[in-house]
Amino acid sequence: MAETFKTIEQPSEGLYKDKGSKFLAFAYPVTTEDEAKMRLEALRKEHHAARHHCWAYKLGNEGERFRCSDDGEPSNSAGKPILGQLEAFGVTNVVVIVVRYFGGILLGVGGLMQAYKEATKDALQQAKIVEKVIMAYFILNFTYEQNSAVMNVLKRYKCEILSQTFDEACAFRCAVAKSSAEECCYALQKLNVEVKNE
Asked: 105 and 149: one domain?
């Protein structure tokens, strides 16, 4: 099972021109379908004069959720080549939207596939690709007396404490590298700490 995944650090742009048509590619890091849709809506507003807004995204630690759209271009001439580049670069949690301004000359299906591929490739080449560790998230409930023992375990497994509340008892929301999650949870349960996986 993969322990890391590759994604882009921040938005980037690419450009491809052919016979007067301009293909502007925008790549964004996203983690949900809603984020991808928001990016698409924003570009539709910004580039409302453009004829097509074609896109593809890959989501999930292993890129297991993906979709693409030709947005009125001939079938498989836009979305598939964009998705193909996401696969070629091996990135996930990324959406690429290519905005096309028509130049008056038809490019044919082959020309379109090439244009959408090259625009996407340019955007991804401009992006800073980073490797991230796949994390597991869980919630801990424990008493004040258990605090130092819990902190020792969290430190040993390099857990990140995302939030904490102290009422009658302590509640922490933590993240740990997925590869050590099982061992870490077992160590906490041995201390009689209540562990809930998210």
From this structure: no
